[in-house]
Amino acid sequence: MFKFIIMKRCLWCSIVGLCLIIFTSCGSSNIVLESLNSSLYKWYYNDKLCVYQEQDGIVVGLTNVYAKDDYGKYYQLDISVLNNTGTFITIYPEAVSAYLKNGETIKELKVYTHDSYMKMVRKKQNIAMALYGFSAGFNAGMAGYTTSYAYNSRTGYTYPVTTYNPSVAFAANTQATMQILAMSKMMNDERKMLNVGYIKKNTIRNEEAISGYINIKYEKGESMTINIPIEGRIFKFDWSINNVK
Hints:
Distance between the termini: 20 Å
Number of strands: 15
CATH architecture of the largest domain: Sandwich
Number of helices: 4
Helix content: 25-40%
Largest sheet: 7 strands, antiparallel
Radius of gyration: 27 Å
Strand content: 35-45%
Order of helices and strands: HHEEEEEEEEEHEEHEEEE
Structural class: alpha+beta
Number of domains: 2
């Protein structure tokens, strides 16, 4: 399931990146479905709104979708950047900002960089691992003990008798250890899959493009503004929450 999600996400980023290259090389006036202003354009792919903006040879494409995993719910931005400046440019994901408007209230949203997102994932995994390890260890520790009840004919009462079987305890501890190791490997594999495709700091050579995604902590609202600074330029995208699929 996770591999399918990662493959789908990488394919989507590739499609967006390829569209940016094709659209820019073909001339925006021939292919854009609707012009929002002189440099911001949009189209739709499978009912999802896609936009791109060009400034001084830098083309930034964006789509915004809902995403949810075991660690939270997000607005997930798929970002593509094409460099046609004739020189090198660098993108810094930690400079991306987002603001949510709800009525008259405007609030800055938490934008997860790759490092902050993976740190949050690891923290929640460590808590889950500690709870699981405690539970497995406790159950294994009790596995060797059995309690039965004996009847005393002289007193007419029953009383508990506890016995300990070291073989059963050893088998239970071995099984608990294997379960903990399996869970640890599963979490490690999950971190690796979550890492694939998450946009990081990159220098982009002329006539090359990169694609990746970035998560923004989900909160309810009416619209949001996304700012992506690149080489002194601000690529600003105003996004209605109705267009987040």
